[in-house]
Write a structure and sequence with these properties.
4 helices, 2 domains, globular, two-stranded parallel sheet
């Protein structure tokens, strides 16, 4: 996580400041950005899927593609997740409807 935030910081113009919005996953802690001078983290409130559209994506993937499965090995996990993701993204209308919010300006 720290490496990822550092990459965001490095890609941010010197006269700019980056704000990263994260959910409250355990690895999304504030202290990982302590040493980064041009970046801050804002956490979404707990249990607020309406603010984090990817939550609906995960729910769709679990319910329709990934639930109740056993995987043979790591490669099988990667293959099945890739298949599930490609199935999800092949329907642009589904992606737009699940990920859009009145307050988000999506470019399609």
């Amino acid at each position: 996580m720290k490496l990822h935030l550092q990459q965001i910081s490095d890609a941010t113009d010197a006269e700019r400041y980056a704000v990263v919005i994260m959910d409250c996953a355990s690895w999304h802690s504030d202290h990982v950005a302590n040493d980064i001078k041009n970046l801050s983290i804002i956490h979404l409130p707990p249990y607020s899927p309406e603010l984090n559209p990817v939550e609906q994506v995960w729910q769709w993937l679990r319910q329709r593609e990934l639930a109740n499965r056993c995987f043979v090995n790591y490669e099988d996990i990667v293959e099945q997740l890739s298949r599930a993701w490609n199935c999800f993204r092949e329907d642009v209308e589904r992606v737009s409807s699940m990920c859009s919010r009145d307050w988000i300006n999506l470019i399609t």
